[in-house]
């Protein structure tokens, strides 16, 4: 391969997001976290177009659980920005400027009067949170934010909140509960980035 071919192939690799890790990180920043001048996190308008990496029922804890009506086993949907998702598939690790959005929805019971109809489905949104990896902004690299559909931005959740220690101690990959995201769990195990502690959590 001559020098011109090498340059062309390098350009193609960068365009496809398959180049060096630095190239992936650069792309991740384009759809990663954005902040207001006062440090609040802007809610991504199009997060529902991102990769939906996991859905759970009754898995809330800490401040988020306080938003749920008593006895309701809320659904949680986790979305991640596309560039970070693609990077994770390649490496099993989260690049800087990764942004997760956690959408909390009330669970509703199917009308069981109809024969064969039973179970739960997702109702209205009752809360939104976000987790970001921003190494230059946060001493611990990762931070959590409260968001809503009413306001364009939301405040930082204090580091004293239980979500910080829980993620640090129990997360499968870095600060994220990848053990609950089936496709990414398999990727992390293949890439050797899955923490053993998460096997029993």
From TrEMBL:
Signal peptide residue numbers: 1-23
Keywords assigned: Signal
InterPro entries: Cytochrome_P460, Cytochrome_P460_sp
Pfam families according to UniProt: Cytochrome_P460
Ranges of residues in domain Cytochrome P460: 44-178
UniProt-recorded name of the protein: Cytochrome P460 domain-containing protein
Origin species: Povalibacter uvarum
């Amino acid at each position: 391969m001559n020098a011109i071919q090498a340059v062309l192939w390098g350009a193609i690799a960068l365009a496809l997001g398959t180049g060096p890790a630095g190239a992936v990180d650069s792309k991740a920043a384009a759809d990663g976290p954005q902040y207001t001048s006062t440090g609040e996190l802007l809610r991504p308008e199009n997060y529902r177009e991102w990769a939906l990496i996991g859905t759970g029922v009754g898995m809330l804890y800490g401040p988020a659980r306080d938003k749920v009506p008593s006895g309701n086993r809320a659904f949680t949907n986790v979305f991640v920005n596309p560039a970070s998702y693609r990077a994770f598939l390649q490496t099993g690790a989260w690049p800087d400027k990764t942004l997760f959005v956690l959408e909390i929805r009330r669970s509703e019971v199917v009308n069981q009067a109809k024969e064969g109809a039973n179970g739960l489905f997702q109702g209205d949104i009752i809360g939104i949170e976000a987790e970001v990896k921003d190494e230059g902004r946060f001493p611990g690299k990762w931070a959590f934010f409260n968001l809503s559909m009413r306001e364009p931005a939301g405040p930082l959740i204090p580091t004293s909140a239980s979500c910080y220690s829980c993620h640090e101690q129990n997360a499968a990959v870095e600060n994220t509960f990848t053990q609950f995201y089936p496709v990414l769990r398999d990727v992390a195990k293949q890439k050797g980035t899955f923490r053993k502690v998460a096997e029993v959590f």
